[in-house]
Amino acid sequence: MAAGPLDLGASTEEGLNPAARGFAVAMKFQAHPNSLFARLLRSPWWVSAALAAVLFAMTRLLLSRFDQPGLYAFFVSLPFAVIACWVGAKQLRAPSAAKLAARLEALRALDWPAFALEVEETYRRDGYEVVRLPGPDADFEVAKGGRRALLACKRWKANRIGVEPLKALVAETAARDAHDCAWLAAGELSEAARAYAAQKGVRLIEGTGLALALPAR
Fold first, then answer.
1. Domain map of the chain by residue range?
2. At what angle do helices 45-62 and 69-93 cross, to 10 degrees?
3. Rounded to the nearest 5°, which phi and psi values hold at 183?
4. Which of 8, 17, 32 is nearest to 146 (CA)?
5. Strand, helix or coil at 147?
6. 55-79 pLDDT tens trace
7. 18-24+97-213 domain in CATH 3.90.1680?
C-alpha cells in the first residue's frame, strides 16, 4: 500500500515509506511487471542513465539536419533520465543488506505479544484502524479508506510455511468479506504455498520484506 503497509485507497510498491514496501494492493495503477518502465524501476539507476544517454546521442544524430536537434534529443531522453534520478535516490535511501538482516533477526527474537505490538503500531502510525482477531486463521483486521484487509502473522518465526495456513487465511478473508489479505513471515514459503498465494492474491511480506515493512523505530 502506498501510504502505509497497505494501500487500501478505493480508487501499489516498493517505493514509499518502509512499511509501504512490504505490501501494496492492486487498487492503484501499476505498470505491467514486464514493461520497459517496470523493468527499469527494478534495475540499478545507471541502466536508465545509460539508456537516456544512448537515446540522446542517437536522436541528436538522426535529427542533425533539423533545427535544434539537441532539444528534440533532450525530450526523448528525459523520461529515462528522470527514472535514473528517482531510482538512484531510492537506492541511496534504502537500508543496507546488513541492516535488514539485523532487523530481521531482531524480529525473529521477539515473542508473540511483542511482535504483534510491532505490527499493530506500524499500521496505526500509517493511519490504519487495527483490530485484533481472536480466531486462529487471521490475527489482525486493518482498515483504511473504506477497505479492509486481514493479516496473518502468528507463525512469523516458522522456517517453512505450507499451503494450508494460506488456505485458511483466504477462507477467513472471504468469511469476513474483507477486500485483501497478507501473510507476514520471517521464514520462507513452500513452492506450493507461493503458487497458491499468487493464484489467490495473497500478499506475501516475507524475509527482508518483513524487515522493510516493520522498520525499527
1. 18-24+97-213, 36-93
2. 180
3. -115, 125
4. 8
5. strand
6. 999 999 999 888 888 999 999 999 9
7. no
